Recover the amino acids of this structure.
């Protein structure tokens, strides 16, 4: 899948959870959603783009936070 599409989808998820009043609950919700509904290949592609420096700046801060906090369980 094209990285721009993955970033867009991750940001949509992030925007939904960002509205939650509890920040930590929102971060955990993002990570859980990605784990439950995204194929492992999609998560690997997103992390590869982040590691290569081609996606990190396009992600919402809360999405980056969720990915960094739960990287081990998402890979």
């Amino acid at each position: 899948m094209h990285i721009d599409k993955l970033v867009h989808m991750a940001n949509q998820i992030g925007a939904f959870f960002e509205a939650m009043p509890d920040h930590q609950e929102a971060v955990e919700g993002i990570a859980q959603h990605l784990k439950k509904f995204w194929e492992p290949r999609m998560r690997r592609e997103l992390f590869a783009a982040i590691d290569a420096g081609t996606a990190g700046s396009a992600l919402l801060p809360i999405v980056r936070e969720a990915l960094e906090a739960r990287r081990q369980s998402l890979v």
Notes: The chain has a mean pLDDT of 94. The two ends are 17 Å apart (CA to CA). Residues 3-18 form the longest helix (16 residues). The CA atoms of residues 49 and 55 lie 5 Å apart.
